[in-house]
């Protein structure tokens, strides 16, 4: 029997009512309601309902026919919603909130903004400007790309006199191709882009070419509601990546000439829209040529060899167990690297290209991985050091994997929203930081599992952020006292010392950076790492520039009070791509004094800064007047997979091992590339 009755609706009306058709405001919060409790026949009698509160329930979706023609305000906070497209049945909706629904992402925000043309506020924020972009600019750009894709690749394939079977075949091929190859906006919105591209493509076929809309639409892939975890053997993992990838052109290591900035305005698209090349002339190739060792496609959804959509986000080299407590970074890493993206985490031998292990969770999308070494009790009170891998992502859950045992021994439900990044303390092996889309950075003690894998995790600290934290870094000279974070709206620092007593803390400092002719604190910082004990490398939303700045000269530890504004003392700027695409992150190799950053064309920009660091370490070290050009740019080679070229390739992340023997590149098209230094 449904929990909702006529009597309950009348009682929960605000104010109480005697007739359903007179109710304008209704509070159905905190009733443990599930989707099946929303009876369309009963709700259809609420003809004049304008405000509905369904917060703090157990709803996973909306029925498609609630028939609330006058609904203007809807609150769905703290449910289990997995999809928002059914909300299109409320066309007059003006205000919508669905915070703390762990399965909803930024892609769902964009979907609902497009579907509800009258929506003005989403999750408490005015979306007027964003809505105009989503409904007009984004749609116009995608329509143009879809049309161009048809004209270039498919128009001539359809005969003037065509049969129904030919129409069905060409439509199926076109829809598959256009969703794979039309790319626009940030990679974090790839799901929304594919959703809109499919919609636009179907409308294009129906209206421009007279092909029947949705006549043979393929059913959407659905994920089993029950979480499926699996750890694959090396043989099974190898079978997953038996994808043939041919290199038609060898990789050329190039030394770029001086480049000039392109000052033309880019189109008013998304932050990750593609911009034109900023080079006045092509870089001169170095006579010495080299090739990457391996191209791997090991994160495919459902092990599909056709998957060029899965985004790869994070990689980190496994520490060597006998490295003397990680004192020497050169010998503290093996040739094994952990990578994550989509539903899986992989362990790869960089020398052989073998996928040693693969861990999958069918309902997850992994964004970050991190290693730690724990001394665990094995038997008879004997202890042994083991490497533990933490992996986290969209579901806000940290998975703890004992790699040698091929076993995920536990999980921590760390946040109600996705986790953007994780990292372990270099001095406290059980201390794990998790940065989430809930605008919090949490410090956890994950504990040490016993011989039966029983463990106890506890939250030690919560750092409140003003916006979503994207990258975090502990200050090398005082990793137990200060943490730095690059966020959607700036670069912040916190005091994380545990003896202060205060468990929840605001940020202690926000840093100002140059912005055209002034300075600003408000900018997205999507790349952050330390080059050495003092030099910070950060990448912001300012196109074509990576900053190097001094932590010690920028942060005033003697100042009093929280939330102080401090000017970053800039040491130098690195010349980089002028793209306005976000989330192409950077990394460093401190032992070799290198900085790496990928771009929107599949290239890797490498900077050897060893000749600059001595001068910067001086108290009187001056800022380099000119931007520092890359030492090398590794160009992405022409690839063909089963005879076809992959779509546009973005380098989401690039990481070197501490000895700079291997370079691992993660892309937006489910390809991991591994280079070896000659």
UniProtKB/TrEMBL annotation:
Residues 291-677 form the Leucine-rich repeat and WD repeat-containing protein 1 WD domain. Residues 7-200 form the Leucine-rich repeat and WD repeat-containing protein 1 LRR domain. GO terms for molecular function: chromatin binding. It is found in: Chromosome, Centromere, Kinetochore; Chromosome, Telomere; Cytoplasm, Cytoskeleton, Microtubule organizing center, Centrosome; Nucleus. Residues 215-231 have a biased composition (Acidic residues). Its main location: nucleus. Residues 265-278 have a biased composition (Polar residues). WD repeats lie at residues 412-446. PANTHER family: LEUCINE-RICH REPEAT AND WD REPEAT-CONTAINING PROTEIN 1 (PTHR24370:SF10), OPTICIN (PTHR24370). This is Leucine-rich repeat and WD repeat-containing protein 1. It comes from Hippolais icterina. The gene is Lrwd1.
């Amino acid at each position: 029997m449904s929990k909702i009755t006529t009597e309950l609706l009348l009682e929960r009306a605000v104010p109480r009512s005697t007739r359903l058709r007179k109710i304008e405001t209704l509070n159905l919060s905190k009733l443990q309601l599930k989707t099946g409790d929303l009876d369309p026949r009963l709700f259809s009698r609420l003809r004049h309902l304008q405000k509905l509160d369904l917060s703090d329930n157990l709803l996973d979706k909306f029925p498609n026919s609630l028939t609330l023609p006058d609904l203007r305000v809807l609150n769905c906070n703290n449910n289990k919603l997995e999809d928002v497209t059914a909300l299109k049945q409320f066309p007059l909706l003006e205000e919508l909130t669905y915070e703390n629904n762990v399965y909803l992402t930024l892609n769902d925000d964009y979907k609902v903004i497009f579907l509800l043309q009258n929506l003005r506020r989403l999750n408490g924020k005015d979306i007027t400007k964003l809505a105009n972009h989503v409904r007009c600019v984004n749609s116009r750009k995608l329509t143009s790309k879809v049309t161009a894709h048809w004209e270039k690749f498919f128009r001539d394939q359809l005969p003037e006199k065509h049969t129904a079977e030919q129409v069905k075949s060409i439509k199926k091929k076109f829809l598959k191709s256009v969703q794979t190859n039309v790319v626009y906006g940030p990679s974090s919105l790839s799901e929304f882009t594919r959703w809109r591209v499919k919609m636009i493509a179907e409308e294009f076929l129906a209206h421009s070419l007279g092909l029947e809309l949705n006549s043979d639409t393929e059913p959407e892939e659905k994920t089993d509601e029950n979480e499926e975890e699996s750890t694959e053997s090396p043989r099974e993992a190898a079978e997953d990546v038996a994808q043939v990838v041919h290199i038609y052109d060898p990789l050329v290591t190039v030394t770029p000439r001086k480049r000039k900035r392109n000052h033309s305005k880019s189109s008013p698209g998304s932050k990750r829209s593609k911009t034109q090349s900023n080079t006045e002339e092509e870089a001169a190739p170095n006579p010495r040529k080299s090739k990457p060792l391996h191209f791997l496609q090991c994160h495919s959804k459902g092990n599909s060899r056709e998957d060029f959509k899965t985004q790869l986000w994070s990689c980190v080299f496994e520490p060597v167990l006998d490295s003397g407590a990680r004192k020497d970074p050169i010998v503290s890493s093996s040739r094994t690297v952990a990578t994550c993206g989509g539903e899986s985490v992989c362990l790869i031998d960089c020398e052989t290209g073998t996928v040693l292990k693969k861990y999958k969770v069918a309902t997850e999308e992994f964004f970050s991985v991190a290693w730690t070494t724990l001394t665990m009790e094995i038997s008879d009170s004997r202890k042994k050091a083991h490497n533990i891998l933490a992996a986290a992502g969209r579901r806000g859950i940290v998975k703890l994997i004992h790699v040698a045992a091929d076993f995920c021994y536990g999980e921590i439900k760390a946040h109600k929203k996705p986790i953007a990044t994780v990292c372990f303390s270099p001095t406290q092996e059980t201390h794990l930081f998790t940065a989430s889309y809930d605008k919090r950075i949490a410090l956890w003690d994950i504990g040490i599992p016993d011989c039966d894998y029983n463990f106890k995790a506890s939250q030690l600290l919560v750092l409140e952020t003003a916006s979503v934290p994207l990258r975090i870094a502990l200050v090398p000279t005082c990793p137990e006292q200060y943490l730095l974070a690059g966020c959607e709206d700036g670069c912040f620092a916190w005091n994380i010392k545990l003896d202060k007593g205060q468990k929840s803390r605001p940020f202690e400092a926000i840093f100002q950076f140059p912005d055209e002719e002034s300075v600003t604190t408000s900018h997205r910082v999507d790349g952050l790492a330390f080059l050495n004990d003092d030099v910070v490398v950060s990448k912001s939303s300012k196109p074509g520039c990576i900053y190097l700045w001094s932590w010690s000269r920028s942060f005033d530890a003697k100042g009093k009070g929280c939330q102080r504004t401090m000017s970053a003392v800039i040491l130098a700027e690195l010349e980089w791509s002028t793209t306005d695409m976000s989330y192409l992150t950077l990394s460093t190799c401190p032992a070799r004094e290198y900085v790496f950053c990928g771009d929107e064309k599949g290239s890797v920009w490498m900077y050897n800064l060893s000749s600059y660091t001595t001068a910067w370490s001086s108290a009187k070290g001056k800022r380099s007047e000119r931007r520092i050009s890359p030492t090398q740019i590794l160009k992405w080679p022409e690839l063909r997979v089963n005879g076809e070229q992959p779509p546009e390739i973005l380098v989401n992340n690039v990481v070197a091992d501490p000895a700079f023997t291997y370079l691992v590149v993660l892309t937006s098209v489910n390809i991991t590339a591994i280079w070896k230094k000659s």
